[in-house]
Design goal:
Length: 543
C-alpha cells in the first residue's frame, strides 16, 4: 500500500495497542500518552511522504520502536536513569541473571511471574499480552472501564518487573513439609463434614498458614511457591466445605482468608493437656468411688439381651462418664468465663490440632450411630458404636443395617435363634457374627451378645451415668479455671464462640484416664483383637 494510505489504518483499535505499547515502557499514563502522541505524529509525517509500504504492521511497529528509542535516549540525556523492562522483550535482563540464560528461559520466568499474580491482574495480563486483546476489548469482557484495565496492566507490570528482577536464575522446586493434623468432629457428618476437603498436604498448608493470621491468596501463593491460580481455586473449596457454607476457612470482608475451625499448634495443645492431667489423680479416685456406689443401679437396668455384666455395661458408659464430666466443665466455662460467647448453630463442627512431633496423642473415644425403621419385627432400631484405642469400630454413621447380614442376624437373635433353622448362608453369617462378638452360642441356640434395651431402659442407664458430672464439681471447677485463660489466648476472636469444642480437645486425656483406670481395676475387659460386643448398644422400639 502507499504511505499516503497510512492514515486510513490508524483507527481506535490501533491507538489502543499503541497506548499499551507505550504504557509498559513508561512510568505512568501521562508519560504513556505523550509517547503515544509522538508515535502517532511520526506516522502522520510518514503518510505525507512518497513511497510504498510492503507490510503495514511491520512498518507501524518499526516506527513505534524508533520513536521509543529516541524517547528513551532523550530521557537518558536529561539525567533519568530509571530502568524499564518490557514484557515483549527479554533483551534487558536482571543484573544477577545467569549469562547463559536463553530467551526462552527468560520468557519462562516472566510467564511464571504472571502465574503468581492474583486473578484480576493475571486475567488482564493474559488477555492483553498473550491473547492480543485491546484494553477496550478487555474492559467490555470484564464489564469495567478502560482506565481500570490500564491501571491493572500497570500494577501487574510493576509486580512482574520486581519478581523477575529478584528471581534466582534457577527457580528451586516446590518442597512442602508434611503437616499432620488430628481433626475431630461432632454432630451429623453426613453431607456436612469439611474434613473431606482438606485431607491433602496442599490444603493443610493453606489452612495452617491462615491459622497464624488472615492472608490473601497472593500471600499464600508466595509462601508456598504455588501459582495463585491454584491457590485461589483451592481456597474456594476450603471456604465452601462439603455442604457449601461451612469449611475450614472463611473469607473476610477485606478479601483475606482466616481459619474457620478451632485449631491448635503443638505447644498450645500440650499446655491444655498438661492443665487437664494435673487433675487426673483426683478424677481417678472419684471414678472408682462412683462405680462402687452405683454398681447395683447399673446391674438393675432391664437389658433385653440374655447376659449382661458390669464390664459390658461400663464399656458402653465410659464415654458418657467422660462426656458428663466434660459437660460439667463446659457449663462452668459458659457461666463464669464466656457468658457473652455464642456457640455456632450448625449440624456438624470440626476442631483439631497439629500432632506433636513425638506422636504421643490421647486417643479419646469415637461414637457413631445408625438407625433403621420397620426391621426384624421392631418399629425402630438405633445402634451406637463406641471405639477407642482398646476397641475397634464395627460400623460408622453411614452404615446401612439392612444391607449387613451379619449385623441383621445379631438383631434377630435377641431372644435366641435355633441353629437348625438357619440356611447355609445364615450359618456362614452366624460364624462371622460370633467371630466379631455379635453372637454367642449356648447349645443349639444363638444369642445376641451386645447390650440391647428399650428407650425407657436407656434413659434409666443414662440417668445413673449423668450423676458422675454432678459428683465431680470440684474437679470441673478447677479445670474450667485453668482452661479459660488458655482458650482466650489461643482462639482467634471470631472463633471464641467455639470454646466448648476446643475444650473437648483439651479434655482428651480424661477418657484415656477413665478407661485405663477401669481396666487396671478389672472393671473393664479388653476384647481379643480389640473387637467384640463391648461398646455396642442397640435401643429398640417395639411395634
Amino acid at each position: 500500500m502507499k504511505k499516503q494510505d497510512l492514515l486510513k489504518a490508524i483507527d481506535q483499535e490501533l491507538l489502543d495497542k499503541l497506548f499499551g505499547f507505550c504504557y509498559v515502557r513508561t512510568r505512568d499514563s501521562y508519560e504513556a500518552q505523550e509517547l503515544c502522541s509522538d508515535i502517532t505524529f511520526a506516522l502522520v509525517e510518514a503518510a505525507q511522504k512518497e513511497g510504498e509500504v510492503e507490510n503495514l504492521y511491520a512498518f507501524l511497529w518499526r516506527v513505534a520502536r524508533n520513536v521509543y528509542a529516541d524517547f528513551a535516549e532523550n530521557r537518558r540525556r536529561n539525567g533519568e536513569t530509571v530502568r524499564y523492562e518490557t514484557l515483549d522483550s527479554v533483551a534487558d535482563e536482571p543484573e544477577d541473571a545467569d549469562d547463559g540464560e536463553t530467551d526462552e528461559e527468560a520468557l519462562g520466568r516472566i510467564f511464571r511471574s504472571i502465574a503468581f499474580l492474583t486473578r484480576a491482574y493475571r486475567d488482564v495480563m493474559i488477555a492483553y499480552y498473550l491473547d492480543g486483546l485491546s484494553a477496550a476489548e478487555i474492559a467490555v469482557r470484564q464489564n469495567t472501564s478502560e482506565n481500570t484495565i490500564r491501571q491493572r496492566l500497570f500494577s501487574a507490570r510493576q509486580q512482574i518487573r520486581k519478581e523477575v528482577t529478584n528471581m534466582e536464575p534457577m527457580q528451586k522446586p516446590i518442597s512442602l513439609q508434611t503437616i499432620d493434623l488430628c481433626i475431630w468432629g461432632t454432630g451429623n457428618p453426613v453431607g456436612n463434614d469439611p474434613r473431606n476437603c482438606f485431607d491433602r498436604t496442599f490444603s493443610k498448608h493453606l489452612v495452617w498458614l491462615c491459622r497464624e493470621k488472615p492472608r490473601t491468596a497472593k500471600e499464600l501463593a508466595d509462601a508456598l511457591s504455588v501459582p495463585t491460580l491454584y491457590v485461589e481455586e483451592e481456597l474456594e473449596l476450603l471456604v465452601k466445605g462439603e455442604n457449601g457454607h461451612y469449611g475450614p476457612l472463611r473469607k473476610t470482608e477485606n478479601g483475606r482468608y482466616a481459619v474457620n475451625i478451632a485449631l491448635f499448634d503443638e505447644a498450645q495443645i500440650q499446655s491444655l493437656w498438661d492443665a487437664c492431667r494435673s487433675k487426673l489423680p483426683e478424677l481417678r479416685e472419684g471414678l472408682l468411688r462412683f462405680v462402687e456406689a452405683h454398681r447395683e443401679e447399673y446391674l438393675a437396668v432391664p437389658f433385653r439381651n440374655r447376659k449382661t455384666d458390669l464390664p459390658l455395661i461400663l464399656w458402653e458408659e465410659v464415654k458418657w462418664l467422660s462426656g458428663h464430666f466434660e459437660n460439667a466443665i463446659a457449663d462452668r466455662l459458659s457461666k463464669r468465663f464466656f457468658p457473652d460467647a455464642t456457640c455456632p448453630d450448625r449440624p456438624f463442627t470440626v476442631f483439631g490440632f497439629r500432632i506433636p512431633a513425638d506422636g504421643n496423642v490421647p486417643r479419646g473415644c469415637g461414637v457413631d450411630g445408625i438407625y433403621a425403621a420397620d426391621l426384624c419385627g421392631y418399629a425402630q432400631i438405633e445402634l451406637g458404636n463406641n471405639y477407642c484405642k482398646q476397641l475397634s469400630a464395627h460400623f460408622h454413621c453411614e452404615h446401612n443395617i439392612s444391607l449387613d447380614p451379619v449385623l441383621l442376624l445379631a438383631v434377630r437373635a435377641v431372644n435366641g435363634i435355633d441353629v437348625h433353622t438357619l440356611s447355609e448362608a445364615d450359618k456362614e453369617h452366624a460364624a462371622k457374627a460370633i467371630e466379631v462378638g455379635y453372637l454367642y452360642r449356648e447349645g443349639d441356640t444363638l444369642y445376641t451378645k451386645f447390650l440391647v434395651c428399650d428407650k425407657q431402659a436407656e434413659k434409666q442407664l443414662r440417668a445413673v451415668t449423668k450423676r458422675f458430672g454432678e459428683e465431680m464439681t470440684d474437679a470441673a471447677d478447677a479445670l474450667a479455671e485453668a482452661f479459660a485463660p488458655l482458650l482466650r489466648a489461643y482462639l482467634p476472636a471470631h472463633l471464641l464462640g467455639e470454646y466448648e469444642f476446643a475444650m473437648y480437645l483439651a479434655t482428651l486425656p480424661v477418657f484415656d484416664l477413665l478407661t485405663e483406670t477401669l481396666i487396671d481395676e478389672g472393671l473393664l475387659t479388653v476384647p481379643e483383637n480389640n473387637l467384640g460386643a463391648e461398646g455396642i448398644l442397640m435401643t429398640v422400639t417395639d411395634k
